[in-house]
Amino acid sequence: MFRINRYRYIDTITHAPFDIFARKLEDAEEMAERINCMTQYKLRKKRIFFKKRMWTDIPPLELEQAQLATIKEWEDKLNVKN
Fold first, then answer.
1. What is the DSSP letter of 12?
2. Per residue of the chain (82 residues), what is the pLDDT tens digit?
3. What is the value of pTM for the model shown?
């Protein structure tokens, strides 16, 4: 079992929660900023319970890389449409 932090962001338009799993706050903020720049989501930090420690079976680096790969796919699809 591995420890990782869950950072909860809220979309200001739909008020839907958006979780990012990262080891450091800087990494989570970078991912949220990339998502804000390319999609209609406008993510901001949740005021209460923003950071929570979680346990996972997936190594933290692999989990972060999977999230980054997904964001990269979204960016590539967006560039193809433009």
1. T
2. 999 999 999 999 999 999 999 999 999 999 999 999 887 889 999 999 999 999 999 999 999 999 999 999 988 888 754 4
3. 0.86
